[in-house]
Design a protein that fits this description.
Blueprint: H1 4-18, H2 27-66, H3 73-83, H4 86-92, H5 95-103, H6 113-125, H7 127-130, H8 137-152, H9 156-165, H10 169-186, H11 204-219, H12 221-231, H13 237-241, H14 243-257, H15 263-277, H16 282-299
Helix pairs in contact: 1-2, 1-11, 1-14, 2-3, 2-4, 2-5, 2-6, 2-10, 2-11, 11-14, 12-14, 14-15, 14-16, 15-16
């Protein structure tokens, strides 16, 4: 679920939040980082809990329509398709998933039911719903993919809700949404319950990369700052104290302390992060500094790279 760029973003946020130095106890910084990363999985589970709540709402709605004599036959049929959606049944009926959601206290949609109501009404008004024909697992899956991609994920009120719930979730949403869609597309009718509970880290190397990038950047922050200062005599010191300075230190850390990561990969990753999180001129500034540093390393054969390279 977690990719290397998002790991870098999480490390950046931790470094920027604490503004620590090599003399500090790094335990609190590492704990903050790992908690922030783990929180991403909570967001994923919260969205599955939301889909469970919407499915329950569809069942209640269908029952009400059946009790109304004036309800149209098409209306009852559509509501029946929604209520009996096999893909949603796979989520709602996944015992392991639901127990995990309850254990982590992420089944909060009963308390915040107005968001379930808002999304449910939007679904009922949509063309996706009016044209939906069920009774087939693949059709049911596509219906869920469509309402999630076009109605649920882009909803501004839901976005604001997640931002208020946990601040870091806003940055996690794009990664979680992408992961969720990939998991849904691969999910089969006879899939094991664990298929909806993927590992957060691709492997333990990714978790090690996160903690080592944090620690090695902090432990060498003075030397990295000196190296940056030599290349930035004409730049405003405030820029170096901002997020740009953090990104530059992290990039230099990868240059020096992670020999298996190609310099080009490092530069591209931090330029993309700068475009998203810093000022409009940041990527130009960072690219210029890193380019000077790499040319110096290559000229003097410093910090050579080896290995296959990890993104």
């Amino acid at each position: 679920m977690l990719n290397r760029r998002h790991i870098r973003i999480k490390v950046m946020q931790s470094l920027y939040a604490f503004n620590g130095t090599e003399s500090d106890d790094l335990t609190k910084d590492e704990k903050f980082l790992l908690h922030s990363i783990d929180s991403m999985y909570d967001l994923y589970l919260s969205i599955l809990a939301l889909l469970t709540a919407i499915h329950k709402k569809s069942k209640d709605y269908h029952q009400k329509l059946q009790n109304i004599h004036l309800a149209t036959e098409d209306g009852v049929e559509n509501s029946s398709n929604f209520a009996n959606n096999q893909f949603l049944e796979l989520i709602s009926g996944n015992t392991l998933l639901q127990e995990t959601i309850t254990k982590k206290k992420l089944d909060f949609w009963d308390l915040d039911s107005e968001y379930v109501d808002i999304l449910f009404k939007l679904i009922l008004k949509s063309k996706i719903y009016s044209e939906y024909s069920g009774n087939d697992f693949n059709n049911d899956k596509q219906f869920v993919l469509d309402i999630y991609s076009e109605i649920i994920a882009p909803n501004d009120k839901l976005y604001d809700y997640f931002e208020d719930k946990r601040l870091t979730w806003v940055d996690d949403l794009p990664v979680v949404n992408t992961s969720l869609i990939k998991i849904f597309r691969k999910l089969k009718f006879n899939a094991p319950e664990t298929a909806l509970l993927p590992e957060l880290y691709k492997d333990m190397d990714d978790k090690k990369f996160a903690t080592e990038l944090l620690r090695k950047t902090l432990l060498n922050t003075s030397s990295f700052s000196e190296e940056i200062a030599k290349k930035t005599t004409n730049w405003d010191s405030e820029r170096l104290a901002s997020l740009d300075g953090v990104l530059l230190k992290m990039a230099i850390c990868e240059f020096q302390k992670f020999p298996s990561i190609p310099q080009k990969v490092t530069i591209n990753e931090y330029l993309e992060i700068a475009k998203e999180y810093s000022t409009p001129k940041s990527s130009l500034f960072i690219n210029g500094i890193l380019d000077k540093i790499v040319k110096e390393y290559q000229t003097n054969n410093l910090h050579p790279k080896s290995g296959r390279g990890l993104r």
